[in-house]
Amino acid sequence: MKTIIESAWTNRELLKGSKTQDTIREVIEQLDKGKIRVAEPSSNGWQVNEWIKKAVILYFPIQKMET
Predict the structure, then answer these.
(1) How far apart are CA 31 and CA 34, in angstroms?
(2) Are 58 and 50 within 8 A, CB to CB?
(3) Are the C-beta atoms of 60 and 21 separated by less than 8 Å?
(4) 30 in helix, strand or coil?
(5) Apex 13 CA angle, 60 and 26, nearest 5
(6) N or C: the chain end with fewer CB closer than 10 Å?
């Protein structure tokens, strides 16, 4: 998943593909279930999982927003 997210971050054209969109949605689902976290405590403070943060940002252009 991390590789797909990182690739889509550098090449936004990949957001058109269903594999990329499915991967982003899977990351969001795992976040919702508490299986993964954007940031985690570590011995040096908090460690940010950049690829997960990127997946959250990439979720907005692929998801239809409701008002």
Answers:
(1) 5
(2) no
(3) no
(4) helix
(5) 45
(6) C
Q: Is 66 helix (H, G, I), strand (E, B) or coil?
A: coil
Domains in the chain: ranges and CATH: 2-62 (1.10.166.10)
Q: What does the alpha-carbon distance between residue 18 and residue 31 come to, in Å, rounded to a whole number?
A: 20
pLDDT category of residue 67 using cuts at 50, 70 and 90 = confident
pLDDT digits (tens, 9 = 90+) for 11-49: 999 999 999 999 999 999 999 999 999 999 999 999 999
Beta bridge pairs of residue 40: 47
Beta partners for residue 45, in sequence order: 42
Does the reported pTM lie above 0.70?
yes
- Return the pLDDT at 64: 85
Cα angle 27-1-44, degrees, rounded to a multiple of 5: 75
